[in-house]
Amino acid sequence: MNVDISLLVLGILDLVFGIAGLSGKTKIPVKYSGRSWSQAYGRDIAIGEIILGVCWIAATLIVGFVEMSSTVRMVILIGSLVPGLVYTFVASRKYKKMLNDNIQ
Fold this sequence. Notes:
By secondary structure, this protein is mostly helical.
């Protein structure tokens, strides 16, 4: 049960940081700041955090309230990482390419 609470807290923190990022209260790395697409970069990273937070919260609640084997629990918890990580990975690659192409 302690693991479930820890993951729930991580999900809530990701959600809060994502909402803060959408409102512009996040620090953008220096190499990405000062460009015409800097705000879009911050927004995309914040959306990835929100997706990750919502998936963690949902998975933690499912795992906490439904009786299942430990293997199924691990599959659900690891599977809940996939959407947020894929979104963030694709967004990071997009902006890294823009940075390497020197798009202002």
